């Protein structure tokens, strides 16, 4: 069992760190304050080649692996969680299902621009009445000649409004239950496809979260992803991979919070000493560091498993659950270490704490993850 | 344009610490990096190649570990990498180092331009570049900040930074330049560059692969010798000025007046 | 250098102290590699006395021939047809070396119509002036100056040559040293005569300023070195002093580099090396906009603006403002360090300043180890207060 990354992966990590320090970190606080999504930053992420990491070279990718992609998510999230989720939602939730289930034409048309970073992707499953109960889809797709007509509303969609390519779940045959759900590729600016309310969020405020509204939206039959009725299976498999991305995002947030807390504890002096010399603080930091390490091992292991072609659903759920809880605890404790300054927006830790919360919720709440894990172990 | 860039793998001296008890260098755990000025030199070379076509070869002299630094240069976009590595080269001062690198360049063959970082952040001498140019019998220009190349064969214009300003010099190729900073700084490797770099071969040349006089290599070929290494003196006694910002500012202003920096009618 | 493996405990202290990475621990014993230069740093670090420092390498040179080289030379660099400050500093220091060696001090002056500087050269301690005048030396040119210096060296055979570690000095010295095939030491901050050998001991910072190295050039002549400006003090000129002028003729040569034009610095305030007052900012300023405070204070005091490497790398300030081992080395009368932590390589670039005032939020910042006056506080509060005080004081 080799716990080391390759020299190549270390170079990639170092590159993303330098990129994030120069292009992402300096504006992170301001973009959070202004709730400003930056397409410019995403374009640079694409120009660096990060968007192509896990995709085959023939579709504009680098032909590399998921673990390396996860490292990129982690390091981007360390600088800015909003940038991290913008990136992983496009790659894990939009590009991946097209890679896994698309026809060669669909891959050429839709996967290539997502892999080369020229287009941004999004995934539309969640509705106001279908969160954890994802199968309760109200959005319908009616077959009509060479088209499908979509009607319905998707909520809380990451990259909504900004993305050009959407993978949308809709009901094609209500009588079949989950087997009646299908997946579709829908492009922005398709007549009948508009955007609704922009979510005003607690955290990841520089990430775009918006409603998708389909009203008699006509799409060609060739935009059906997989076969009719495959939609739920596609959605679940997609979320399995997306979970590793969220785990990596949570890991990045937690690592950053730990780094900030350690640095502060060494500098801040009270009672004539740095506060790091008090066990009340140093023991807290020790626990935080341990949680971050454990989150890292679970996350990397899930990615590794996916790369090996082995089943990874359980591992992905464990990683997402653990890393997000760790992020929440580590960021909360980081604010505590900073004391009063931790509560102030002049310092980065309060943002980290606000950003961490969503990782326990989206792409399957942690309660859903518990369901996945318990189902796996009780089989 | 055929460009050769000389690079050195160095310890990151910004991370090096001194052991407070023994007052000696603590080199352990200090990461090895590509000398920062060499990265700027490489960026200048890559920019010229992107503009005018041609190739960029990176050359280094050092232990086998220096291959890591060369790979980073390949990842940034260099086309070929060569490492001169041999026990015979070890312990060299700048004269022996420059002689060895010059021999390496002769073996690389025809070139239009050699670009070096001004100095390495461990040796800090800034001597190897000009000495190499002398061994190769070509002109050199130090502190180059910009190169304007004309059409084939035409002389190039080089901007050279001085204490008082910048000069513009014209020189026919081949020429050797040394660089401190270039433009907005070195580019980051892109993902495809990293993948390419780890699939590329780094040519490793030993003393038998180059034409050299063994008497002028390594420690034996070094006219300068290190007599002693010691830690710089620590000055003691900084007068800490107490009070809040206004009180402290007042004290400083008084000191400046005492030094006749202010209040002397400028 | 020899390691006594019986006494060696394999603790690794020697390997950690070696600036050249030339020691490895194998089978719990230290071993040296071919990167070893016999500097002796390991011997100092070993608490088991298991290392015997080397006594130097015999690397050629004829002892008789070496002794026939006599005299200390100072290369006299010009700025606007005047002797540069560093040239005068080197005449003063060169005088001390020459006296200790019992030899002559000579200045070397290449230029066009510069004979009138001779009096100043002798007044500052030289016994002799090698004067080479020709229009082709009117402006520094590597080819012309290298050819001239080489001819002078081969004809008159000095034992020692000192040059200022200026842009041109560090351009010329290595070219000459490579042509003559002799040893050159860069950017020295200490010069003395080694008692044992009678050689010049060149002391200089290395490793980003983390260590000092003393270098000797035992078997090659002349012993050459570039010396950092503003480290040594100039002497009180003795206008009564006279000396011998040697008008040297050099062979004509063509230069391969053509000077087209000079672009003066847009702002004199970037000329850090000559500035008397420098106000410098680091990452502790918080954000690039706060640098306006640094500039304001600098302007008020009639000084230049400096920057740490961190802020240059972050793009807050252009590179020509960088102070430090890889930036500019400065030694102004007053250096005000604002929000600069004081990394070793920054200190190496400014610790020669006469008076250092440091402002930093962190009381344990290394800048306070070299500062003369320290304020622990927020630069964004202290600087406006200081600017205000100075405005009132000069009103």
Can you offer a commentary on this structure?
The complex is a heterotrimer of chains A (379), B (266) and C (395). Chain A has 379 residues and is α+β, with helices and mostly antiparallel strands. Chain A has three domains: 7-120, Butyryl-Coa Dehydrogenase, subunit A, domain 1 (Orthogonal Bundle), CATH 1.10.540; 122-232, Beta Barrel (Butyryl-CoA Dehydrogenase, subunit A, domain 2), CATH 2.40.110; 233-377, Up-down Bundle (Butyryl-CoA Dehydrogenase, subunit A, domain 3). Chain A has ten helices and ten strands. Chain A has helices at residues 7-34, 39-48, 66-79, 81-101, 104-115, 231-267, 279-307, 313-338, 349-357, 366-377; strands at 121-124, 140-144, 147-158, 165-171, 181-187, 193-198, 209-220, 224-225, 269-270, 273-274. The two termini of chain A are 27 Å apart. With 266 residues, chain B is of the alpha/beta class. In chain B, 27% of the residues lie in helices and 26% in strands. Chain B has helices at 36-52, 67-76, 94-108, 128-136, 191-197, 245-258, and strands at 2-6, 9-11, 17-18, 25-26, 32-34, 55-61, 80-84, 113-117, 140-141, 144-148, 156-161, 165-171, 175-179, 202-205, 225-230, 239-240. In chain B, a hairpin with a 7-residue loop joins strand 10 and strand 11. In chain B, helix 2 crosses helix 5 (191-197) and helix 3 crosses helix 4. In chain C, the strands form six sheets. Chain C has a seven-stranded parallel beta sheet with strand order 11-15-10-5-8-9-16, sandwiched between helices. A five-stranded parallel beta sheet of chain C has the order 19-18-20-21-22. Chain C folds into three domains: 2-52, Alpha-Beta Plaits (2-Layer Sandwich), CATH 3.30.70.20; 62-247, Rossmann fold; 272-394, 3-Layer(aba) Sandwich (Rossmann fold). In chain C, helix 6 packs across helix 7 and helix 8 packs parallel to helix 11. Chain C is built from eleven helices and 22 strands. The longest helix of chain C has 17 residues, at 85-101. Chain C has 395 residues and is an alpha/beta fold. Helix content of chain C is 26%, strand content 26%. Chain C is globular and about 60 Å long. The chains are: A alpha+beta (379), B alpha/beta (266), C alpha/beta (395). Chains in contact: A-B, A-C, B-C. The A-B interface holds A 7-8, 11-12, 15, 18-19, 47-50, 52-53, 62-64 and B 68, 71-72, 75, 188-195, 197-198.
Brief descriptors of the model:
heterotrimer, A: 379 residues, alpha+beta, Butyryl-Coa Dehydrogenase, subunit A, domain 1, Butyryl-CoA Dehydrogenase, subunit A, domain 2, Butyryl-CoA Dehydrogenase, subunit A, domain 3, 3 domains, 4-stranded mixed sheet, 4-stranded antiparallel sheet, 52% helix, globular, B: 266 residues, alpha/beta, 7-stranded parallel sheet, 3-stranded antiparallel sheet, 6 helices, 26% strand
């Amino acid at each position: 069992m080799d716990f080391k990354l390759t020299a190549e992966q270390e170079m990639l990590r170092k590159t993303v760190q330098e990129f994030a320090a120069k292009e992402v970190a300096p504006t992170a606080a301001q973009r959070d304050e202004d709730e400003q999504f930056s397409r410019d930053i995403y374009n640079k992420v694409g120009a660096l080649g990060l968007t192509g990491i896990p995709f085959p070279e023939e579709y504009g990718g680098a032909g590399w692996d998921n673990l390396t992609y996860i490292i990129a998510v982690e390091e981007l999230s360390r600088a800015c969680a909003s940038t991290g989720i913008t990136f992983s939602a496009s790659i894990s939730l939009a590009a991946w299902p097209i890679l896994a289930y698309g026809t060669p034409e669909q891959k050429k048309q839709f996967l290539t621009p997502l892999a080369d970073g020229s287009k941004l992707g999004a995934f539309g499953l969640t509705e106001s009445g279908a969160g954890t109960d994802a199968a309760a889809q109200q959005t319908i797709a009616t077959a009509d000649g060479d088209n499908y007509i979509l009607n319905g509303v998707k909520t809380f969609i990451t990259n909504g409004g900004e993305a050009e390519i959407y993978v949308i779940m809709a009901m094609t045959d209500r009588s079949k239950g989950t087997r009646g759900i299908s997946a579709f590729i829908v492009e922005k600016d398709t007549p009948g496809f508009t955007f609704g309310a922009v979510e005003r969020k607690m955290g990841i405020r520089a990430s775009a979260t918006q409603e998708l509204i389909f009203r008699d939206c006509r799409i060609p039959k060739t935009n059906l992803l997989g076969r009719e009725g495959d939609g739920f299976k596609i959605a679940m498999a997609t979320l399995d991979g997306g979970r590793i991305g969220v785990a990596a995002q949570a890991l990045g947030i937690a690592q950053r919070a730990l780094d900030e807390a350690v640095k502060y504890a060494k500098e801040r002096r009270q009672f004539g000493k740095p506060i790091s010399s008090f066990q009340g603080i140093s023991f807290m930091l020790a626990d935080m560091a341990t949680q971050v390490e454990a989150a890292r091992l679970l996350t990397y292991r899930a990615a590794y498993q996916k790369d090996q072609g082995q089943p990874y659903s359980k591992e992905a759920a464990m990683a997402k659950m653990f890393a997000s809880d760790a992020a929440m605890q580590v960021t909360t404790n980081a604010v505590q270490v900073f004391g009063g300054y931790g509560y102030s927006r002049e310092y980065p830790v309060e943002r980290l704490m606000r950003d961490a919360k969503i990782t326990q919720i989206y792409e399957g709440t942690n309660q859903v993850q518990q369901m996945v894990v318990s189902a796996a172990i009780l089989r | 344009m055929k460009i050769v860039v000389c690079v050195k793998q160095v310890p990151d001296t910004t991370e090096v610490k001194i052991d407070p008890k023994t007052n000696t260098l603590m080199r352990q755990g200090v990461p090895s990096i590509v000398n920062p000025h060499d990265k700027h030199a490489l960026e200048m070379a890559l920019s010229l190649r992107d503009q005018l076509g041609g190739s960029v070869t990176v050359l280094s002299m050092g232990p086998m570990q220096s291959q890591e630094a060369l790979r980073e240069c390949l990842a940034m976009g260099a086309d070929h990498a060569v490492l001169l590595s041999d026990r015979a080269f070890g312990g060299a001062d700048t004269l022996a180092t420059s002689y060895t690198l010059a021999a390496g360049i002769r073996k690389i063959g025809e070139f239009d331009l050699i670009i070096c970082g001004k100095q390495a952040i461990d040796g800090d001498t800034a001597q190897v570049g000009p000495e190499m140019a002398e061994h190769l019998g070509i002109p050199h220009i130090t502190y180059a900040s910009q190169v304007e190349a004309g059409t084939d064969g035409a002389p190039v214009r080089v901007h050279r930074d001085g204490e008082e300003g910048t000069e513009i010099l014209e020189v026919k190729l081949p020429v050797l330049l040394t660089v401190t900073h270039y433009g907005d700084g070195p580019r980051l490797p892109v993902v495809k560059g990293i993948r390419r770099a780890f699939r590329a071969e780094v040519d490793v040349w030993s003393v038998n692969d180059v034409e050299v006089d063994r008497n002028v290599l390594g420690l034996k070929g070094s006219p300068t010798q290190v007599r002693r290494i010691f830690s710089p003196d620590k000055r003691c006694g900084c007068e800490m000025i107490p009070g809040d910002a206004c009180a402290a500012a007042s004290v400083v202003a008084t000191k400046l007046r005492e030094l006749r920096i202010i209040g002397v009618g400028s | 250098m020899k390691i006594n493996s019986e006494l060696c405990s394999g603790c690794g202290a020697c390997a950690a102290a070696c600036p050249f990475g030339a020691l490895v621990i194998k089978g719990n014993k230290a071993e040296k590699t071919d990167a070893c230069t016999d500097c002796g740093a390991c011997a100092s670090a070993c608490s088991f006395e298991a290392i015997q420092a080397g006594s130097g390498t015999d690397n050629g040179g004829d002892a008789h021939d070496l002794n026939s080289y006599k005299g200390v030379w100072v290369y006299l660099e010009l700025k606007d047809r005047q002797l540069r400050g560093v040239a005068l500093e080197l005449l003063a220091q060169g005088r001390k070396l020459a006296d200790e060696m019992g030899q002559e001090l000579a200045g070397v002056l290449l230029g066009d119509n510069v004979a009138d500087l001779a009096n100043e050269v002798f007044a500052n301690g030289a016994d002799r002036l090698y004067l080479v005048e020709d229009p082709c030396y009117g402006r520094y040119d590597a080819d012309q100056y290298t050819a001239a210096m080489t001819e002078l060296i081969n004809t008159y055979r000095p034992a020692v040559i000192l040059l200022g570690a200026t842009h041109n000095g560090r351009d010329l010295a290595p070219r000459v040293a490579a042509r003559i095939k002799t040893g050159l030491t860069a950017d020295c901050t200490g010069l003395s005569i080694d008692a044992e050998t009678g050689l010049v001991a060149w002391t200089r910072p290395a490793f980003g300023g983390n260590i000092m190295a003393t270098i000797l050039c035992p078997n090659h002549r002349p012993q050459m070195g570039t010396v950092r400006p503003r480290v040594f003090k100039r002497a009180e000129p003795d206008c009564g002093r006279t000396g011998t002028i040697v008008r040297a003729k050099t062979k004509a040569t063509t230069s391969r580099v053509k000077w087209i034009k000079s672009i003066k610095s847009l702002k004199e305030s970037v000329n850090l090396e000559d500035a008397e007052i420098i106000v410098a900012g680091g990452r502790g300023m918080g954000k690039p906009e706060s640098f306006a405070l640094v500039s304001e204070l600098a302007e008020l005091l009639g000084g230049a603006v400096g920057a740490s490497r961190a802020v240059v790398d972050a793009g807050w300030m252009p590179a020509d403002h960088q102070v430090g081992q890889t930036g500019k080395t400065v030694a102004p009368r007053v250096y005000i360090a604002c929000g600069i932590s004081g990394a070793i390589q920054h200190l190496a670039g400014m610790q020669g300043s006469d008076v250092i005032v440091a402002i930093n939020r962190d009381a344990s910042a290394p800048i306070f180890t070299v500062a003369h006056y320290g304020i622990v506080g927020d630069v964004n509060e202290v600087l406006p207060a200081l600017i205000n005080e100075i405005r009132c004081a000069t009103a």
